[in-house]
Amino acid sequence: MNAKQKTSIRRMFSIRRMFSIRRMFSIRNIFKLSLIFISILALIAVRPARADTVYTVINTDDSGVGSLRWAIVAANDSPGADTITFNITSGCAIDTGICTLWPGSPLPELTDDGTTIDGYTQSGAAAATADTGAVILIQISGSMAGAANGLTISSANNVIRGLAINGFERDGITIGFSEATGNVISGNYIGTDAGGTADLGNDWSGVCIYNGAQQNIIGGSTPGERNIISGNTVIGVEIYSVGTNNNTVSGNYIGTNANGTADLGNDSGGVYIHTGAQQNIIGGS
Questions:
Q1: DSSP E strands: which ranges in the chain?
Q2: Per residue in 89-99, pLDDT tens?
Q3: Which of 60, 200, 246, 252 could form a Cys-Cys staple with 227, CB 3.0–4.6 A?
Q4: In degrees, to the nearest 5, what angle opens at C-alpha 230 toward C-alphas 229 and 234?
Q5: Beta-carbon contacts of residue 46 (< 8 Å; ≥ 6 apart)
Q6: How far apart are CA 162 and CA 101, in angstroms?
Q7: Which of 199, 137, 210, 138 is nearest to 173 (CA)?
Q8: Helix and strand tally (H, E) in the chain?
Q9: 195 with 159: CB under 8 angstroms?
């Protein structure tokens, strides 16, 4: 074998070795990348879910840290689920423990999805059961709020429970526009006092659902989800406008006291669906 042939063979083996090494590193890199990808997926799978942010109302003030107004603004500014709880220890009625909040202007709209306002977190409050009535200790009075709704909801998947909402110049609770879906209003006294016995009605409707709001629930199937919607000047529950569809009103006492034994009627009717609203469900327990 001459020198030229030897050089050719060496070059051939050198090329084969180079490709073999490259292939080996390529396989190793793919294997390493696969391990990294699997590790990332594992970390995502075990990462704990984001906990709700909790804002606690600690006074009956109309503004400032610890007020309901402050808590709603904070929840709106915090993306994701939030819960507004109550731990008011002063400024409440000595004999009943009822804490009354008097907003001096309209409260902020609920504009961020997934906010829960839970009046039953106040010490001593309790939802109704099959044997006992609700104990509601958080009352929002609209007597000083001017032309305002009690609560206005324009976002999705919010929950309002355990409140007495009365005396507002407009609706007790308004749920409006197509973004307002999947909201739940349960276990409230809307248009009565916190005891559910006196007419302190809101000047418009107790609950108004309108302008394309869909799949909202007023009430529920258990005693604890029952709303008392009575004493309001116009309608107990009003649902109207084209696109306001597939809402459910069930399991409530509308036009009675909390025990369902006395008339506290809404002046112009219990439930009114009009102006193009369709496929809404009324009734049931």
A1: 53-57, 82-86, 99-101, 115-118, 138-141, 151-153, 159-161, 163-166, 173-176, 184-186, 189-190, 207-210, 217-219, 228-229, 237-240, 248-250, 253-254, 271-274, 281-282
A2: 999 999 999 99
A3: 252
A4: 100
A5: none
A6: 14
A7: 210
A8: 2, 19
A9: no
Tokens standing for residue 8: 């050719």
pTM listed for this prediction:
0.84
pLDDT confidence bin for 159, thresholds 50/70/90 = very high
**Each residue of 202-229: pLDDT tens digit?**
999 999 999 999 999 999 999 999 999 9
CA angle 200, 205, 206 (to 5 degrees): 60
Three-state SS at 74: helix
pLDDT, averaged across the chain: 89
Rounded (5°) CA angle 86-92-95: 125
Q: Which tokens in the block code for residue 213?
A: 């709001």
